[in-house]
Every structure is written in C-alpha cells, then in structure tokens.
Design brief:
The complex is a heterodimer of chains A (331) and B (345).
Chain A (H helix, E strand, L loop, with lengths): L1 H5 L17 H5 L1 H10 L9 H10 L2 H18 L1 H4 L33 H37 L1 H16 L2 H11 L5 H27 L3 H8 L4 H9 L4 H24 L11 H8 L7 H29 L9
Helix pairs in contact in A: 4-15, 5-7, 5-15, 7-8, 7-10, 7-13, 7-14, 7-15, 8-10, 9-10, 10-13, 11-12, 13-14, 13-15, 14-15
Chain B lengths: L5 E12 L2 E13 L4 E5 L6 H6 L10 E10 L2 E2 L5 H7 L4 E4 L3 H4 L6 H12 L5 H14 L5 H5 L8 H12 L6 E5 L7 H18 L2 E6 L2 H7 L2 E6 L2 E7 H6 L4 H8 L41 H5 L5 E2 L6 E2 L12 H10 L3
Parallel strand pairs in B: 3-8, 3-9, 6-7, 7-8
Antiparallel strand pairs in B: 1-2, 1-4, 4-5, 9-10, 10-12, 11-12
Helix pairs in contact in B: 4-5, 4-7, 5-7, 7-8
Classes of the chains: A mainly alpha (331), B alpha/beta (345).
C-alpha cells in the first residue's frame, strides 16, 4: 500500500531498541510503534473490555471478600445434605428449645419441636437463595426485553410499554403480593419467585431503556444499519453487549432485594410455607414467643443481613468495574 | 456517457422541529455514473449529508420526512423501496464510510468480527473460514499492518487512522456499486488524513465503485473527485466537472469558497471570507438564499424575489443557480486555476 512508502524509512531497518520510552522515533507515531513492537515480537497483549473489568473487580477488596463469603454460603446451601448435621424436619422431643450449644452439634440451638436450628437455616438458605436467583433471572429477562424494545423503537411502543411499567411500579407491592398469593396459592417456592419477578422487573426495564436510548444514537449503530444489519441483530449484537454493565449490576442487586422481600413475605406468612424452611419462615416461627428464644430469630436474621450485604457489596464492585468512566486503578 | 448508476430527481427532505419545519433539502437532482467520484461540498447545515443519507433511509423518521422526489438506483426507486429490500441493499450494493471512526466501530466487538459481520449479513452461505480470510485480505488491502493480529483486536486498540481504514475495509467488503463517504477525514488529523485519502483512492480504484464524497474540504475534492456539486441552504447551487468548477466557478458562493482557501502561490495578505451567516433553514430569505451575502447581487430585485433555476452555462455540463452567472465570467479563473494546479490539500 502507498502507506508504506509514506512512512519514514527507519521502519524497514531492524529496530535498534524497541519500546524504549523516550526513543524519539518510536514515540512519534502510535501506529509505527505498534508495528515495531509486533515486528520485534514484543507482545502487545490484547486485553478486552472484559479483561479490564475483571481486573478492576479483582482489585476491589470489599467486593472480593463479599464474593468469597457469598460463594461459601452458596456452596453450603447447594450441598445442604452434606453440611447440615440434621434433616430440617427431624424432630427430637427430648431436646426442645435448646439454646446454642456444642452438645449434639446444636450450634444454633433447637426449636419448639427439637429440630436443629442450624440445619433449618442451611435448608432455609437454600430455599431463599433459589427463590432470589429465579426472581433475579426472570426479572432480568422480562425487564431487559421490555426496556430494550422500548428504548430501541421509541415512539408509541415506548410510550405503551413505559406506561405499563409505571402502572406496575405504582402498585403497592406488598398488598399486591399478599392478594396474589392468596389467589394463586401459596407455599410453593417457585410460585413465590414468579410472583416476585412479575413485580421486580420495572426498575430494570427503566434502566435498560435509558441505556438503549443513549446507545441507539451511537454512530456504530448507524454504521451497523448502513451495512445492512436488521433491528434484531442491532439490538442483540450491537447494543445489548454495550448495555451489559448496568444489567449485571442490577441483576445482582435484585437478588439482594428479592431475598429481603421474600423473607418479609414469608415472615408475614404469605410466602414460602412450612414445612419448607425459608429464612423468613424461620424468623416467623421463632418470634411467636417474643424474644424468649432469641436464637431462633437472631441467626436466620443475621444470615439474611449477611447475604444482602454481600450482594450489595458485590454489586458496588461490579458497578465500579464495569463503568468505563471509572478508570482508576486501586493499589 | 453511460447510464447513470444513481439518478436523484427533486429530492426534498424536511425535519419537523419545535420551532417549525426545517427544509433541509429543497429539491436536489444529480446523477452518479459508474466509476466516477462525485463530490458534494457545502458548509455545515447545507443539507449535503441529509441529501445522501435520506436515500438509504438513514435519517431518523420522524422527525425527518422525505417529501418528494425519486432516486433511481440500478433501475429501482430507493425512496419507494420496501424497508426490507433497502436494508439488503445497504452494505451490499451501497456502502458507507462514516465521519468519525472513533465512534463508528462497536467498542465491545472485535474488529475482525465486525468486518466479518458486514460480509456474512449479505452472504449467509459463506463459510466462517472464508469470511475470516476475506476480512484479513481486506485489512491488508487498506494498509492495516499485521492484519492477522489486528483481526482479533478491539477497536480501542486501533488508532484513529487505523480505525478509519477498518471502516473503509468494511465499506468495500461486499464490493459495492456505490460508495458513500460522509466526511471521511474530518475527524482525523492532517497527516493521517493524507494516508486515509490514499486508502480511499486505492479502495475506489480496486472496486470501481462510484463514489459520493460528502465533505467541506475543497482540497479533498480537488484530490479525489471527478465532478462536484456545491450545496447551499438545501439546494445544489452549482455543479460541474472539477476543472470547470475550480477554474471557472459560476456561482458567487463557489467563488467565495475558493477565495477563502489559503494558497501558497497567491500572494494575498488576507483570506477573503464570505461575509455574513448561513441562512436559518427555518426562515429562508426570499428569492435566492444566498443573496444577503452575495457580492454579485448588489441588492438587485430578481435576487430578492425569484429563486433562480439550476441552469446550464457554458458548453460543458456545467450547471449554476444564479441569475447573473454570466457576469462572473473570468473573475474567479485567475485565482482558482492556480489552486487546481497546486492540488490544494
């Protein structure tokens, strides 16, 4: 190409000291220095945006710590059969309402039927995490779809979908949840999850819509259009990957929100029903005698707080890592 | 001359805004012949981009609206074509190079993947390996060093010039019949501009694509174009082959443009800018849109009341939209002929 001839002649000579900062020839043009670096085998490692994001996240201590704790809790919950010393519904009428003790491994005490509290918390954790994950997943899918369509197409489509979102948003959440759960039946963790998801997607839709609104005006979208890409392809391949940051962050935060709401719902007796143990159910059962049996209330409560905190910290870390405007590197 | 590849007649585009209807393009007509390079010059807001982009359905509708005209491309009217067909045409028979290469590549996709996509969109049956080979050869063609390594890099690892090369590669990927370059060098610095022009030239010669070059850089026009259309306030005010336009401009606006160019050969102390401001497209002056700024008009009545027609002047295919074009005879020649010879850049 003519570009070759346009370049200074030193490009064809073996580069004497490649990459040395302050070497005036190399510093002159970025392209050339790149070329030089390649020619001499000095590797310029290609690092994707994800590479940068992962690096930033790994350096976020609070988020990493939270991730470790959360992973630990998840593993315990998944392999509950292995970790729990007892089955969650195994009564032992000889050891009713024992306070926390090392005896017989009742570390968190026992409840009114002599069931091991620690085991019930572990199984409850499984239910709660499961519900929260399903809620987050469903809400993400619904919210992203609606937000993407709304933001990309605009006009009356946008108007209609956003009014629908507003409508759902104005519903008094708890009241609706209570009502629905009466009608569709209660107790099934999956049903609770679906109901929650149907209320949780709104914030998501708004965030995704906003992101799409700004991204669809970008020139690379116009360029994609000019090269013949259709709407579906532009949405899925060109805009969505650019919007993934806020989506991940919010999906994470929804997990925390869902755990809290599910606990509240179960506490009120409208969520997961006994004998399925969920963290809210455990607190509800434990508080029937006030705080006389404090361990039945405190430990499930602490676990809820711990999960919610961890997830929120992780969400913060992700936000810092995925936000390209935050280029600061933590030492 | 052969049949025109693209033949635009009386194209009119308007935008409805809060302040009223903006007539961005007011009935422009032009032909593009196979293999030629047509330059469209004019200042910001003269409608040069809209006049071309609207053909491909690339202006936002609403607020934009094509209110009239036709655009025959390869025997079919682009303006009446169903959206789906138009989409298939884009990137295949008609391709574009955009103004700002920094933002025209998707930051989260590898450059190779984006180029490959431009190909596989229109050739779904092509094998992946073939697409990749084609992309690499394209990158090589536009002078991207180390195309294999560059293939799997992300846009942020490309410099501005390299990105614009990649964009050009993307545009010629499907060997278009018509290439539209919308201010391809505006966002680049001067040294890179020169390289990109070379690449564009080479790409055009390689594919024999007819090219519409939208720019406000007269140097670029002198370098690349065969014919020029000068636009002012949504109308073509002068059109002709490049030598005629540069040597004998027959519209006072074109003359003004030429005089405002810095030149090495001319011993002028000062450049002569065109006085005044371009008219608001919301509230166009009656008569000739240029008359408030025109040195030739001197406030004569027809300029203020009648919109001049685009009419032929001289023996060559030279069109002008001025009531008194004849009075310009020879006036610009002395100063502008020199510019052509210098090959203003």
């Amino acid at each position: 190409m003519s570009e070759r001839s346009a370049q200074p002649p030193h490009i064809d000579q073996p580069p004497p000291s490649v990459g040395v900062v302050g070497e005036p020839q190399v510093a002159m043009q970025v392209d050339e220095s790149l070329e030089l670096a390649y020619d001499s085998g000095l590797e310029l490692k290609a690092r994707s945006q994800w590479g940068y994001a992962a690096r930033r996240f790994l350096r976020h201590r609070l988020a990493m710590g939270s991730l470790v704790v959360l992973l630990f809790l998840c593993i315990v919950a998944i392999f509950a059969d292995f970790f729990a010393p007892y089955a969650f519904d195994e009564p032992d009428f000889l050891s009713i309402t024992l306070p926390p003790t090392t005896e017989n491994n009742h570390f968190f005490g026992t409840d009114f039927l002599g069931r091991d509290s620690l085991s019930r918390i572990i199984y409850g954790l499984r239910t709660s995490l499961w519900v929260a994950l399903v809620v987050s997943l469903l809400a993400t899918v619904i919210g992203t779809t609606i937000g993407a369509i709304s933001g990309y197409f605009g006009g009356w489509v946008d108007n209609g979908l956003m009014r629908l979102t507003d409508l759902v948003l104005t519903l008094p959440g708890l009241a609706v949840l209570l009502t629905i759960s009466v009608y569709v039946g209660q107790g099934e963790p999956m049903r609770v999850a679906v109901i929650l998801a149907l209320l949780f997607w709104t914030g998501f839709a708004r965030i995704v819509r906003g992101t799409f609104l700004s991204l669809r005006e970008k020139e690379f979208v116009e360029a994609a259009k000019a090269s013949g890409a259709g709407d579906t392809r532009i949405i899925l391949r060109h805009i969505l990957p650019n919007a993934v940051g806020p989506i991940i962050v919010n999906a994470t935060l929804i997990v925390a929100g869902a755990i809290l709401v599910e606990a509240a719902l179960s506490f009120l007796g409208f969520g997961v029903q006994p004998p399925n143990p969920a963290l809210g159910v455990l607190i509800n059962e434990g508080q029937s005698e006030g705080l006389k049996f404090w361990w039945l209330v405190t430990f499930p409560g602490l676990v809820i707080v711990l999960i919610a905190l961890c997830i929120n910290f992780i969400g913060d870390g992700l936000r810092d890592a995925l936000d390209p405007t935050q280029r600061r590197v933590r030492g | 001359m052969a049949e025109p590849l693209l033949s635009v007649r009386d194209l009119a585009v308007e935008f409805s805004t809060e302040d009223g209807v903006v007539h961005a393009v007011n009935g422009i007509s032009y032909d593009v012949y196979p293999g030629e390079v047509l330059g469209v010059v004019g200042e910001s807001g003269s409608g040069k981009s809209v006049g071309v982009m609207s053909l491909l359905g690339l202006i936002p509708q609403p607020p934009g609206k094509i209110t009239g005209g036709e655009a025959i491309f390869d025997g079919r009217d682009l303006l009446k074509m169903p959206k789906k067909q138009l989409r298939r045409l884009r990137g295949d028979d008609v391709a574009m190079v955009f103004q700002d290469p920094m933002t025209s590549l998707n930051p989260v996709l590898r450059v190779g993947a984006q180029l490959g996509e431009a190909i596989s969109t229109h050739r779904p049956q092509m094998k992946r390996a073939d697409v990749k080979a084609r992309v690499i050869s394209l990158l090589e063609l536009v002078g991207v060093p180390n195309p294999e390594a560059r293939y799997s890099q992300y846009p942020h690892e490309f410099s501005g010039g390299m990105r614009q090369r990649a964009m050009i590669a993307m545009a010629i990927a499907n060997e278009p019949k018509l290439l539209i370059a919308d201010e391809p060098t505006t966002a680049l610095d001067v040294t890179i501009q020169a390289q990109v022009i070379e690449v564009l030239k080479a790409a055009q010669e390689e594919t024999h694509a007819a090219t519409i070059l939208i720019t406000h850089d007269l140097g670029l026009v002198a370098e690349l174009c065969d014919r020029v259309a000068v636009m002012y306030a949504g109308r073509i005010v002068e059109m002709g082959d490049i030598y005629t336009i540069f040597a004998e401009p027959r519209h006072p606006y074109t003359v003004g443009l030429m005089q405002s160019l810095p030149r090495l050969a001319a011993h002028n102390e000062w450049l002569r800018p065109i006085t005044g401001q371009p008219p608001s497209l919301l509230n166009m002056p009656p008569g000739c849109a240029f008359h408030p700024r025109c040195f030739l008009s001197q406030g004569r009545l027809p300029c203020r009341t009648d919109v001049p027609e685009l009419r032929a002047i001289g023996d060559r295919a030279h069109l002008t939209r001025c009531h008194y074009a004849e009075e310009l005879h020879g006036s610009g020649a002395a100063t502008t002929a020199a510019a052509v010879e210098e090959g203003v850049t």
